[in-house]
Write a structure and sequence with these properties.
24% helix, cytochrome c-type biogenesis, alpha/beta, six-stranded mixed β-sheet, single chain, globular, two-stranded antiparallel ribbon, Thioredoxin_CS, redox-active center, Glutaredoxin
Length: 171
């Protein structure tokens, strides 16, 4: 499973090299509707993304065995807390994982936002804007439910918070 986890690329000397900006933003005219996302959260309660329409939504695809997913978890939690007053919602999607391991991950990072449980890894396949075979991935939806931004690597609090604040304030 860990082969799916996107690691920092190395240069010829084996040293980690800085990655390009993680978040790719789409103009309002080029945004596509997000798929109708439904499922069960880690606590087994039902979830429907349509109920969050009208909010900017951050969807983060992660797994407990993915080291970069753990690296970015505190930043995602910080963004969730810092932007809640703007109506921003954060949703995790736990893929190709074991429910107990996923719950331990959530507890260890003290994540307060909900996470869908997707043990078969089917949900990422419904989002054409991301690579379903790498983790982590983050998709940001505008208030109309369209894909406004995508990150196909670990995000930082600074870049993600700037993206979601701009969407929450201007849209």
């Amino acid at each position: 499973m860990a082969a799916w986890c996107l690691q920092q690329p190395n240069d010829a000397d084996g040293q980690a090299r800085p990655a390009a900006t993680a978040i790719v933003q789409f103009s309002p005219a080029s945004r596509q509707a997000a798929p109708a996302l439904t499922g069960h959260l880690l606590d087994n309660s039902a979830f429907r993304l349509a109920e969050w329409r009208g909010s900017v939504v951050v969807i983060n695809f992660w797994a407990s065995w993915c080291a970069p997913c753990g690296d970015e978890a505190p930043d995602l939690q910080a963004v969730a807390e810092a932007t809640a007053g703007l109506g921003v919602r954060v949703l995790g999607v736990n893929v190709n994982d074991d429910r107990d391991a996923a719950r331990k991950f959530v507890d260890s990072y003290r994540l307060t936002y909900p996470s869908l449980f997707d043990p078969a890894g089917e949900i990422p396949l419904t989002f054409p804007a991301i690579s379903p075979r790498t983790l982590p991935n983050t998709v940001v939806l505008d208030q109309a439910g369209n894909v406004a931004a995508v990150a196909q690597r670990k995000v930082t609090r600074t870049e993600l918070e700037a993206t979601v604040r701009a969407l929450a304030v201007t849209e």
